[in-house]
Amino acid sequence: MAIIGHDIRKAKECLLAGKIVAIPTETVYGLAGNGYNPDVVASIFTVKERPSFDPLIVHTDSLHKAICFVAQMPPLACRLAKWFWPGPLTLLLPKRQVIPDLVTAGSHCVGVRIPNHLLTLRLLQVLPFPLAAPSANPFGYISPTTAQHVADQFGHKIAYILDGGACAVGVESTIVSFDGDKPTIRRLGGITRSALEQVVGPMAMQLQHPPHRPCIPGALFSHYAPKKRLVMGELSALIAQYHPIKRVGILSFQTLYPEIPAQNQVLLSPKGCLEEAAKNLFQGLRLLDVMDIDLILGAYVPNHGIGEAVNDRLRRAQSKLC
Ligand code: TXA
Ligand code: MG
Predict the structure, then answer these.
(1) Is the model's pTM score more than 0.85?
(2) Contact in structure between 165 and 283 (CB atoms under 8 Å)
(3) For residue range 212-224, what is the model confidence (pLDDT) as tens digits?
C-alpha cells in the first residue's frame, strides 16, 4: 500500500526514481510524475487507465521555470499568469521539444499551471523537472479532494501520497487557450470567468468535451461521475417522481427535503456559499456513491461565479447511456 505522509524528501526520492506520487493542489489531488520522462508519463496513463489521446497538465513552481518548456507566451497569457499564478488556472501554450509528445497527446501546446499549495510548491522547488499530473481518479470517476480519496483508489498502485489536507477550491483549474493573443476559456474551473475578464477583457468560451471511453452498449458512462445513477433537475419534482419507489439520496445546494431521511442528503453549502459548495462537491458525490440507496437526485447551484464550474461538473456527472 502507498504510504500517506507529509514528507517532501520521500516524495522527491520516489519521483527521482521514476515513480508516481500523488500530490495535493488547491483544486484536486494529482497523480504526478517526471514530465520530461516519456516512460514515467506512459505509466501515469496506465495507472489512471486514461486514453493516450487525453493530454496531461504540467505543473511547475515559477514562471522562470515554465519558460524552460514553453516556447512562447502571448502577452495576455503573461498577464493572466502574473495575475493568477500560483492558482487554479491552466494555460495552453506552445511547447518546447523537452516535453514528450505523449504529455500533450501530440498537440504542439502544453497545459501549464503553478498550483497554489505550499507542500507541492516546496516539492516542485526541489525537483529538477516539472510534474505531469492528471487528477488522481480513475478515468471518468469523481475527482479526489483528500489524500484518503487517492488511497482508496490507487493505494496499491503508487509509491507515495503527499497529504496536503482537503483541497481548498475543490474543482479543477480553469483552462484557457490562445489563438494569437486571443484567449478562450476551454474548461470552467477554480478561477471564475468574471475574474479572468477583469484582467483581460471579454473572453470567448469553447468548452472541451472530454473523450469518452469506448464502453459496453447499455452501460452507464459519464465524466466526473459516481457509479450510482445521478439524475439532475428540480428536486421537489424528482422526489415526487422517484420516492418512495426507489431509495434516493439527495445532492442539494442548501435545502433539506423532509420526506427523505436526513442521513441520505448532502447539502453542498447550508449557508448558501458557492465557494463552499465547490469545495464540498466531489466529497459529497463520493459520500452519496457509497450510501445504501438506488439513485442520486441532484440540483444545480446558482449559475454564477464558481457556481458555473460546479454546474458544469454536475452536468457531466449525470448518468448517460452509452
Ligand atoms: O486542477 C487541475 O487542473 C488538476 C490538478 C491536478 O492540477 N488537474 C486536472 O487534470 O484536472 P486532468 O488531467 O484531470 O484534466 C486536464 C484536462 C485534460 O482532460 C485535457 O482536456 C486538458 O486538461 N488538457 C491538458 N493538456 C492539454 C493540451 N495540451 N491541450 C488541450 N487540452 C489539454
Ligand atoms: Mg480529471
Answers:
(1) yes
(2) no
(3) 555 555 555 678 8
